[in-house]
Amino acid sequence: MLKLYQFERTWGIPNLSPFCCKVETYLRMAGIDYEIKPALPLRAPKGKLPYIEDNGWKLADSRFIVTYLKSTYSNLDQALNEMQLGASVAIQRMLEEHLFWVALYSRWQYTDENWQANKQAIFGKLPPIIRDLAASHTRKKIQQQILGHGIGRHQTDEIFALGKQDIDALAASLGDKPYFLNDQPTTLDASAFGMLINIIACPIESPLKEYSLSKNNLVQYVERIKRKYYSDC
Fold first, then answer.
1. Secondary structure of residue 106 in the 3-state scheme
2. How many CB atoms lie within 10 A of CB 16?
3. How far apart are CA 89 and CA 115, in angstroms?
4. What digits encode the pLDDT tens for the residues 70-108?
5. Which CATH number is correct for 82-229, 2.60.40.1120, 1.20.1050.10, 3.90.1300.10, 3.90.1150.150?
6. Which residues of 156-180 are buried (b: 16+ CB within 10 A; e: fewer)?
């Protein structure tokens, strides 16, 4: 059986990583059997979670994992036309290469309260000395990545203003549809759900969360997918 390596469940959501949540949601939407292996990214093939192991072969990065699942098991995007496929890629890039960094800033840099909640969720089960060292080292590394990406070079209000633009775009794209591109879920929905639930339903407070909660269609979308695919979570 396919094995999915990801962070342990916490906060009452499928996963605290949008990318782990994306992969598991794809698996559930596509009806693919799998086994969860709780892990930290220390020994992951690319130093990040998630990764999968299937028939003795390990594969990392949610984009490559989903491509593999499409070709090997079930392709949720097979009914989409070229325009829809193009929109799927474009919106996923906005989610995963831009909005993600605003959410990351919220957790690792915005307030000490957010950092403490994030630290406990990720490192809480480690022995105290190792926990504090690992958490401090990882936080500095991620803050450098946020700066290197460019989002961290802006003022706080500018960062959240950019994130709100993404939320506006998502709300407009979804409208009153059950899913973003079709009457059935696609890869985009796995990605969008993974990102949105990690903004809306986590104990991480920020202007981004407040603004997202004001978008009723996005909130209902997250609740609908969680209810349908994660009744056990």
1. helix
2. 22
3. 31
4. 999 999 999 999 999 999 999 999 999 999 999 999 999
5. 1.20.1050.10
6. eeebbebbbebbeebbebbeeeebb
Q: Map tokens 């407040």 to a residue.
A: 210
DSSP 127: -
Amino acid at 199: I
State how far the alpha carbon of 154 is from the alpha carbons of 133, 148, 151, in Å: 28, 12, 6
Q: DSSP 3-state assignment of 175? A: coil
- Does this model's pTM top 0.90? My answer is yes
**If one looks up domain 2-72 in CATH, what number appears?**
3.40.30.10
Structure token digits, residue 161:
């203003």
3-state secondary structure of 40: coil
